[in-house]
Structure formats: C-alpha cells, structure tokens
C-alpha cells in the first residue's frame, strides 16, 4: 500500500527541493494536507509567481523581478568598483558582511567546459563592455576559492587586462574565529605565504 | 540589503514546510530559481492540485482524492477487523509492516479539549455507526502510546462497549532490535508486567 496517486505525486514533486528525501517529503506533504492547507496554497501561488516573474537584472544579472535591481538603481554606490560573484547568495553574503560600497556582477556559475558552460553563459561579454564603457576602476574577482572559481577568475582577468582596469582577488587566509588545528593544509600554507607584519591594533 | 521583495516572499512562503528555517528556505529558493525552474513549476502545480482535490475518504476518512480510498474499495480485506489510527502516516506504517488484513478508520488527531478538538472532530459518530451497522467484530485501538492517544483510546472504548464489539490495543513492550539499556523506564516496566511464557521458536 502507499498513499493515493495524487499524494504520491505531491511527495515526489517536493523532492525537487534540495536536501529533501522520501521521508522528509512525506512529512512535508502530510503537514500541508493535514495542518496547513492555507500555507500550502500560498506557497503554490508565490512559487508560481516567482518562477514566472523573477529574471536577471539587466545591469548586474542578479535575480530580481524588476528590470534593474535595487542595488543597481541606488545612487549611493561607487560606480568605480565592480565585484564579480558566482551567485546571488554570494552577493548577499558580501552585503551582509558590510563595508563594500561598489557595484556587483553576477555570473550565475563558473566556467565548466565539461558541462558546456562557457563565457557567454556567464555574461562575460556584458561584463567586458561594462568595464570598457563605464569608468570602472577596479574589478574585484570574488569567485569561489575552488579550482573552477580560480579558473574563472583567471579567464576574466585575462579578458579585462587590455582595458587597463585594476584587478583584485579576495585575500586568502585562516578564517576568523576558527582554530588552526582544523584549518586545511592548502589554506594554512596560503596564510603562511601571505603573512603580514604584526600591528598591535 | 536583502533579495528582491518577490524572492523574499518566496523564502518566507517556503517556511510553512516543517523543519525549514531561514537558511534552508534561502537555499531552496536559490536552487529553484537558479537550477530547477521546471521542477519548481511542477511542484507549484501539483501542490495547488493536491490541496484542491485531496479530501477525506467517505468511509475511513484517510486522505485521498477519490470519494472512497483504494483500501476501502478493496474486496480482499477483512470487514470484521477495524483498526483506528490517528493519522494516514500511522496507517501507512502499519500497512508497510504487513500482516494486517482488515480495514481502517483515521481520526486525524486525538482528543484535545484545550485545543478544542472533541469527538465530532475525530469523526467518532461515524465510527460508532460503522461499528453498529456493519458487522465489525474487533476494533483495534492503534492510537499513539502517548497520554493523548491513550485518553482517546479510552474514550472510544467507552463509546463502543455498548455495541458488544471486541476491543484491543497494540501490545506494549521493548522495541525489536533495541538495547534494553536505552529503553525508557515506563516501557520497560510495561514489558515486565506483560511478560510472556518463553517459547523456543
């Protein structure tokens, strides 16, 4: 025996959500059907609406339902600084850390020839024209510190170097509040090689 | 900064799902928007459909989109046995354990005067007429072994006793495959009081 066909279909559909296996999908379906039908209906409507209307910002390519996102519209950001990130979640993390007052460009991924993801999929043409035409002084390559992220940063750096823009990368090192014992060897040797003079502040 | 209003609304709507906090909701929203829009659209459509069409089986009150569920329709079950459970998930667990070939009655909860859940909310009138009119020989009270489940079982037993039906309750004891060390005291003393003659089979 199993649940009715429509309930089974609902459980299967819930498994598109990351981290949701069969047991969790069952718990979610039962919760919505038994205890929160209004919340479920609201979720269905908002999900449909968001998938219909959320697209890419015409300037920075972040996810937004507007043609140009709020951050690109803002007049209080520094046009001379452009931070390139792999995802909207990375962008949000940098914003939440505070301190950065420039603009962004979102790649939605990294170069991955094996998956057929090339420069055009990441909007690198648009990035290049923006740098060439809009007085960007420094591009901060904030792709992930992974093999793919590094390769993507190198590719972009090579593409932009002809435009005489300053290029930078986030500093590598030991994370704040961590314990050295648990830091991996690659990070530790990077942190040694990049060591800084001690200042007592 | 945060995501755009519609994305924030999607993240908030996802939190109706049990066990989904702000971080998980963000990860789910990003996954659907960035990597699986088709899956997300399918989920929205199926969810809307299920919440619209899934109701209670007219006979046993389990969740189904049909008027009468497949198990109640089946001619291969024993009409003389009726198992009363708190939820469709409990019913499924019993079916998956195998061995039981009778019918079910689903309460969708337990008596809870403080939450305003009384006998009529659990369909106890329908249960009583079914027992009175349909030749049920034994009612197995398989409510949860909790204070509320026990109270509900006692209430139903008192209600049905006038109809001369046999009443039973699931056996209490130590769970199979567990270690005695980790079994709680209440269960252990129940298992002692209910001890059975040893048979070498």
TrEMBL record, chains A, B:
Primary role: May play a role in DNA repair. It seems to be involved in an RecBC-independent recombinational process of DNA repair. It may act with RecF and RecO.
Family membership noted in the UniProt record: Belongs to the RecR family.
Record-annotated Toprim domain positions: 80-175
GO molecular function: DNA binding; zinc ion binding
GO biological process, one term: DNA recombination
Keywords: DNA damage, DNA recombination, DNA repair, Metal-binding, Zinc, Zinc-finger
Protein name: Recombination protein RecR
Pfam families linked to this entry: RecR_C (PF21175), RecR_HhH (PF21176), RecR_ZnF (PF02132), Toprim_4 (PF13662)
Stretches annotated zinc finger (C4-type): 57-72
NCBIfam families given in the database record: recR
Keyword DNA repair: yes
């Amino acid at each position: 025996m199993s649940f009715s066909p429509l309930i089974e279909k609902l459980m299967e559909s819930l498994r598109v959500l990351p981290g949701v296996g069969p047991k969790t999908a069952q718990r979610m379906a039962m919760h919505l059907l038994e205890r929160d039908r209004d919340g479920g209906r609201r979720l269905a409507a908002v999900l449909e609406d968001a998938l219909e209307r959320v697209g890419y910002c015409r300037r920075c390519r972040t996810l937004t339902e507007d043609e140009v996102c709020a951050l690109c519209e803002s007049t209080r950001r520094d046009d001379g600084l452009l931070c390139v990130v792999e995802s909207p979640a990375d962008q949000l993390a940098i914003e939440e850390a505070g301190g950065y007052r420039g603009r962004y460009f979102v790649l939605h991924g990294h170069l991955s020839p094996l998956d057929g993801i090339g420069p055009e999929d990441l909007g690198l043409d648009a990035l290049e024209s923006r740098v060439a035409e809009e007085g960007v002084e420094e591009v901060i390559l904030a792709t992930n510190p992974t093999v793919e992220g590094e390769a993507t940063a190198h590719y972009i750096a090579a593409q932009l170097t002809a435009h005489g823009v300053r290029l930078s990368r986030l500093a590598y090192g030991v994370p704040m509040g961590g314990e050295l014992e648990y830091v991996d060897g690659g990070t530790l040797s990077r942190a040694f090689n990049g060591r800084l003079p001690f200042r007592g502040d």
